Fold these 2 entries.
Entry 1:
Amino acid sequence: MSNMKFHFTPPNGWMNDPNGLIFHEGFYHLFYQHNPEGKEFGNISWGHAKSEDLINWEHLPIALQATEGKMIFSGSVVFDKQNTLNHPSGPSLVAFYTEHLFESEDKYSQSIAMAVSHDSGLTWNMDDPFTLKHNQSNDFRDPKVFWYEEEKKWVMLVALSLEYRIEFYESKNLKDWRLTGSFTSSGPNKNTWECPDLFPLLNELGHQQWVLTLSGDHPDGKGWGMFYFVGDFNGKQFECSHNYEWLDYGHDFYAGITFEGLSDRVMLGWCGNWAYAKDTIPKSSSNLSLPRRLSLKENRLRQKIALDSHLLEDLIIHQSEPIDHLKFTIANKKGEPIDIELSPKNIIIDRSESQLYSTLKTYNQLSYQIDIQEISIYQDNDILEIFINDGEFVITERI
């Protein structure tokens, strides 16, 4: 059990990616990749929790349950307000998820499946025969579905993860989908592309731009992280207008997606890194990040904690503007020292004295050269989240 104050932690078992984030009937609903039977990765189902304030969470029964030979990988949830699904029980919550089937010990397939709920996500009918398959790829996953008001239709993004490509589909009824376009780029393309999200934001001039976020490579070329593209979306195709940017520069922010059903964009991410998560998280706890409200300025995302500042006062361990050269040590939950060094042009975090991370020679120190104008460092037991220059540069680090 975790002693986190504000970082979501499941009641038991393993957790990784957040799924199906939606604000519905006055509650933030969080679904997540979950093994309710153990702290190891496996038996992946969708856990479920809800909250009125993104701090206090009510843990609910497993939403989508894995079965023998099938795991329930990432996806999204929408509210079909207009009942475009033409369901006899009326408007419903509809989940689109990745059905991961094991055909043999070393062979699998992935396709998109659907489930429907008429009790605000408490129970789900997974018996619908709908599936969306790809005839050329078994790595076809992480559907993100949203309503595109301009054309009164649904849009779905799906990742062809090992081909570094996102495909776009459209539908009027949530069941009949037509491919409309795809997006790829020369980078980053070392690990994979997965967990896509696409949403509009107004920039500082009041103009709408679209942001495509993805999970895969890490800024230092080692491990796993998140990046994004800024561009335009015409309902069928995303066109990138700027080079990609990194979403988080720490070792432990992954698979972040945003809530549907809100007027702004609030993101949650998994505090983990596939390079070592399976070795470290079972020995500690699974957590999600603090909720982050996203904005766009000068074609770069800005991230700010989406909670009232007075609630976070006891989490702030350092805040300064401007920056002087400073070196200090904090302690993790076990009392082990974590060194932080700041200068006007540099930040260094060293977690090599943390027993859990000391053996990770490639990942136990982080150093970036950046012109630091102002900085806020938050510690919630064993997670650091650092926001630099109005949230333009963010670092998430488990300690």
Entry 2:
Amino acid sequence: MENERESGSGAQIVIVDDVDANLMILENIIEGMGYTPRCASSAAEAASLIAESRPQLILLDVFMPEMDGYEFCERLKESPITRDIPVIFISAADSSEDKVRGFKLGAVDYIGKPFEVTEVTMRVRNHLKIYEMQQELEMSNRRLHSVISSQARRIEDEQKNILYALAALTEERDAETDNHMQNVAFNCRLLAQGLQFSPDFDEEISESFIDTIEVASRLHDIGKIQVPYDALMDPMNFQTEDLQNSKNHALQGAQILERVYQNTPENSFLPMAIEIARYHHARWDGSGYPQNVREKDIPLSARVTMVADLYDTLIGDEGGENCCEEQEALKIIEEKSGIFLDPEIVKVFLKIKNRLRHS
């Protein structure tokens, strides 16, 4: 008897049968095994017991008034709270059809009446042991998932910091503004939040998109780290040489990020960062790079970043030939609407202009 008490120690077992004699027999067997029996004479009473405290096993009579065991088992298996509790049917009907029906509904075993103590004991003990093992496995899986997720977040944060450091070097070379990356990231998030309320974008923009673009947009110019200083392009001119310079740093940026992503495909922000790097110099009318990529063929993340990037470049180029006052910058962006920039994004951008960040 000691061995029988080892597995499922303290386990609660709900017994459901409308015949008092059957309840008494099973109750005595379960108590003798060292477990806690909880008896119910109907499905409704059993449901109340289960709601009060989740059992580790249910012994369920098939034929009962009001709701039979088959229907009650089906309801238990439909609920995410009770579907994992093992159910053993108890019945005098032991035809193969009855058993097959029970197994199809999710029962794990079948005990025939009249009860034989050894059979009940062995079946109950075996299924409690299986249930315990399943619970331990699920707990181990949850712990493992937590550890893996924590490690993945740490690796992602390390990647993010390294890439941010590389991208920051481009600011020093390009001298657009001391806070260009931060400003673009902040304004991309703000703009994405605004687009979320537009019927043109509400299905494309989720909270995840908003969080990701704030991270990914900071890396839009990372390719400039490999472009000669004197080849960094003027954002307002699109001559042949400017398009080549644009192609160079957009392509280089995408390739840098793709190499990083190959080693960590579970990274959450790199796929968007890659498309932003590659397409942030595309143009609504197809005149940018990649050439002939136009309108909504340009990824939404890149279309959002293009507007925020141009705005901060115009405002932040202190002392530069492209430097202009805020109103002039907004006017230029409005003029480029439908030519360089997505006109619907520009509309939203102009509505939130007073909340934009630049310094």
